[in-house]
Amino acid sequence: MNFVFHVTVSLIVMFGIGFSAGSNYCKDNWVLIFHARSGNGKDVLQAWKTRHNNCDIVSGICPCSITDGCLPPNARIECLQSATETLRSPFIDYWDCLKIKKVKFELKVRGKTVAFIEFDGRNSNYLNWFHNSRILKSSWTDMHKSQTYNFFSIDKESRYYRHFFINKNYGGCPRDLGWLAVKDSANFRGACGWDKHNSYPQFLYGRNGKVTRWNDMRFGKAEDLNIYVQMGY
What residues does 204 pair with on adjacent strands? Predict the structure, then answer.
């Protein structure tokens, strides 16, 4: 308990987190913690998992620069429309200490949201929040907790570089059905047509709020991927 308290206080000092009524970090406000741009050559899964080693919670020294791939505190998505770097907040490294209430995964095209999922973030960690048992709401009308999935995971289908992957079933490439796939590469034997793109990463999603047959190539491609959290419960 003392460690958690110390970490929380250190985060307040390092990132300027306040919990007053006017704070950007007060209860029920969404805080941007991850931003990725399609086609920039940066592996999304690797970026999500890589800690900021120069962030020292004990000393309170945590330099954070967009040029280093670090998402500064209080960053607003409107100010990142031209950002091509993949940006990760140090908050992710202290997930267990932040009393995260909700997590939102969002895809955008030209600044407009084309797909999203909100998850129950309570008692989660930085990987298991992304699971069908935690779905609160979604832009996909056929996506819900009791739907059939063969994958609903950030990193469980890395053999095919299909990350943040939500899939209904496999059946050979022509019969693969799913909702969401972050494609970080197609550098593997037996890649399906829908795995192959001119640049990576690619953020693939089922259009019209429904599951898609991947190999029909009728899925949408988002430009931006954003992840937000709400803290405090």
Answer: 181, 221
CA distance 3 to 145: 34
Output the pLDDT for position 79: 64
Alpha-carbon distances of 59 from 9, 26, 32, 52, 63, rounded to whole Å: 12, 25, 24, 14, 12
Q: How far apart are CA 145 and CA 142, in angstroms?
A: 10
Q: Classify 5 in phi/psi space as left (phi over 0), alpha (psi -120 to 50) or beta.
A: alpha
Q: Is a pLDDT exceeding 70 seen at residue 78?
A: no
Say how far apart CA 115 and CA 106 lie, in whole Å: 6
Number of other residues whose CB lies within 10 A of the CB of residue 3: 8
Q: Is the pLDDT reported for residue 6 higher than 80?
A: no
Supply the mean pLDDT for the chain.
87
> Measured at the alpha carbon of residue 229, what is the angle toward residues 225 and 230, in degrees to the nearest 5?
150
Pairing of strands 220-222, 202-205: antiparallel
User: Could you give the CA distance from residue 54 to residue 74 in angstroms, rounded to a whole number?
Assistant: 19
The pLDDT score that the predictor gives to residue 3 is 36
* Burial category of 12 from C-beta neighbours within 10 Å (exposed 0-12, middle 13-18, buried 19 and up): middle
Give the C-alpha separation, 145 to 136, whole Å. 9
Rounded to two decimals, the pTM is 0.88
Q: Output DSSP code: residue 95.
A: G
